[in-house]
């Protein structure tokens, strides 16, 4: 009996180590959070974010940041982006592509233009640190897309513009992160820029040359 209690106590020690318990806790939160927040008209995605903060390393410490949690978060984010792509009206997206470009440009350049001088000259961070922090403010996220979808306005022009702008800003931020990573590791040289340029060209070719043709077979 004592061994059983000790085993249970060890299994439920924070942070949880058992994959079964971690998976069960995540599923419990996914099911319970929307139910609890529905009466007060708070979107379910907000409840999931709050729950993650509460049970995370800086809260109750029931879950630590490990490969399992990273897998859940990555799958969730990719799923949201996948659903957003499926439900995006391509005709509307083509009509608003110029607006998307300008929206993405301004929502990228304004945070960079404000964040970098503040971090570098006022907070006295280094150039790379200031650029990294500023780029964090410049990036977008589609985490709120399920809220938009639940209100039935996913076909709205503003949503198409926002998704297009998100694609542009996230791509630009990823390029900046690659440059910062290379500068930190001391690998910024001619080979680095050639590799980055070729990779970006291949990315553009796949996105605008191959994927649209493949998509026509399915949609």
UniProtKB/TrEMBL annotation:
GO biological process, one term: proton transmembrane transport
InterPro entries linked to this entry: Cation/H_exchanger_TM, Na+/solute_symporter_sf
Record-annotated membrane-spanning stretches: 20-37, 44-63, 69-88, 100-123, 129-148, 160-180, 192-211
Membrane topology, from the record: Multi-pass membrane protein
Record localization: Membrane
Main subcellular localisation: membrane
Annotated ranges, domain Cation/H+ exchanger transmembrane: 28-211
Superkingdom assignment: Bacteria
PANTHER family in UniProt: NA(+)_H(+) ANTIPORTER NHAS5 (PTHR43562:SF4), NAPA-TYPE SODIUM/HYDROGEN ANTIPORTER (PTHR43562)
Protein name: Glutathione-regulated potassium-efflux system protein KefB
Organism of provenance: Sphingobacterium spiritivorum (Flavobacterium spiritivorum)
């Amino acid at each position: 009996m004592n061994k059983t209690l000790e085993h249970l106590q060890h299994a439920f020690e924070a942070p949880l180590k058992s994959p079964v318990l971690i998976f069960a806790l995540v599923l419990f939160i996914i099911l319970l959070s929307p139910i609890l927040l529905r009466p007060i008209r708070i979107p379910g995605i907000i409840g999931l974010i709050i729950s993650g903060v509460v049970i995370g390393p800086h809260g109750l410490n029931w879950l630590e940041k490990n490969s399992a949690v990273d897998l859940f978060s990555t799958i969730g984010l990719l799923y949201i982006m996948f659903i957003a792509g499926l439900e995006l009206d391509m005709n509307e997206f083509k009509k608003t592509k110029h607006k998307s470009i300008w929206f993405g440009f301004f929502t990228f350049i304004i945070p960079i233009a404000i964040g970098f001088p503040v971090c570098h000259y006022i907070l006295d961070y280094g150039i790379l640190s200031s650029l990294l922090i500023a780029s964090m403010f410049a990036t977008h996220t589609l985490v709120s897309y399920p809220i938009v979808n639940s209100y039935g306005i996913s076909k709205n022009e503003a949503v198409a513009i926002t998704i297009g702008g998100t694609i542009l800003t996230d791509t630009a931020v990823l390029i900046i992160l690659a440059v910062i990573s290379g500068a930190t590791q001391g690998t910024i040289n001619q080979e680095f820029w050639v590799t980055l340029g070729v990779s970006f060209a291949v990315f553009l070719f796949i996105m605008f040359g191959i994927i649209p043709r493949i998509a026509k077979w399915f949609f």
